[in-house]
Amino acid sequence: MAGKGKAAARTLEDLTLDSGYGGAADSFRSSSVSLCCSDTHPSFPHGGNCWHLTESMHSRHNSLDTVNTVLAEDTEILECSGQCAKLPELEEVPWSVAEVEGALRKDDEAVRSAGVPRDIVAKLSALLSRALVRIAREAQRLSLRYAKCTKREVQSAIKVVLSWTISANCVAAALGALSLYNMSTGDRFSRGKSARCGLVFSVGKFFRWMVDSRVALRIHEHAAIYLSACMETLFREVFGRVQRSALVEKENGVPKLTVESLEQAINNDSELWGLLQPYQHLICGKNASGKNLK
Q1: Which three-class secondary structure state does DSSP give residue 219?
Q2: Could you tell me the CA-to-CA distances from 112 to 101, 107, 115, 177, 256 in Å, in that order?
Q3: What is the dihedral sign for C-alpha 78, 37, 49, 71?
């Protein structure tokens, strides 16, 4: 009887923490990719560290709110030092170098033939991990009321964080990926979710990252599809702009792609520079020279 009681309790716990991804409630484990910046707070029983913000949107789960740019205990330190709070640095990202290269080669014949330097891929990965944190934290804030992250929260976060042009492209890509996924019901057991969505990035990795980062208590699989499609499109968008900027400086008729040219292209782009800065506050519509978005 004791064994049956434990099994029933375990079933109830799984239903309570249902993640919306086929019984992956056990995925709430400790992780090194928490979206919080402070290490002074204790870990939660099922993993992850989140700071505590009082009266956050009048939610019972106010410790999940990671959008406020300054912690109460850090206010005096920041005022004394004159420094801005920074985004947390991710030790792990839900994509690999091979997946980034595959995403960049997907729709570009020139990249497919010439390839992408590894240092460019590594730099892009480091920069766009900041955009991932910004979108995830905004989705986390929007998920507070119902403690559930769906495609709607991710879509709204994309529109809030990214510029109008980039967000429109990312949302369109996410809608296309979800449509392909919903239409491929006949082969759902023979192909993975990424293949069914037409994506290079792994939907499963993004879902696990969202769970481990405690974006919400419950995460729907469509949210992971939206986020993975958004980030894959964002990689191509940024790299495409860098390529167009590199056309100005050529070597033997070939665009010169280096880490320096990548940084210069981003610094001159008012839609990308603020987004990829390491600071928690979002600088909108300005480039590195302070020029406004036209």
Answers
A1: strand
A2: 9, 8, 6, 22, 16
A3: positive
Whole-angstrom distance, CA of residue 53 vs CA of residue 78: 17
How confident is the model over 83-108, as pLDDT tens digits?
678 888 898 999 999 999 999 988 77
Residues in Cβ contact with 3 at an 8 Å cutoff, skipping those fewer than 6 apart: none
Domains of the chain, start order: 20-93+117-234 (1.10.20)
**37-94 pLDDT, tens digit each:** 544 444 444 444 343 322 333 333 433 343 343 433 444 444 444 467 888 889 899 9
Q: Return the percent helix, strand and coil in the chain, to nearest 5.
A: 50, 5, 45
Helices and strands (H and E) in the chain: how many: 11, 4
Cα 2 from Cα 134, distance rounded (Å):
46
Q: pLDDT tens digit string along 212-233?
A: 999 999 999 999 999 999 999 9
Contacts of 213 (CB under 8 A, 6+ apart): 31, 33, 34, 35, 48, 136
The runs of H, that is alpha helices, within the chain are: 2-16, 75-81, 97-105, 109-114, 118-142, 151-161, 164-183, 193-197, 203-212, 221-246, 259-267
Q: How many CB atoms lie within 10 A of CB 230?
A: 29
Provide the percentage of residues in the chain whose pLDDT is more than 70.
66
60 class by beta-carbon count within 10 Å (0-12 exposed, 13-18 middle, 19+ buried): exposed
Between CA 223 and CA 24 the distance in angstroms is: 14
DSSP secondary structure letter of residue 126: H
Predicted structure pTM score: 0.74
Beta-bridged to residue 250, according to DSSP, are 255
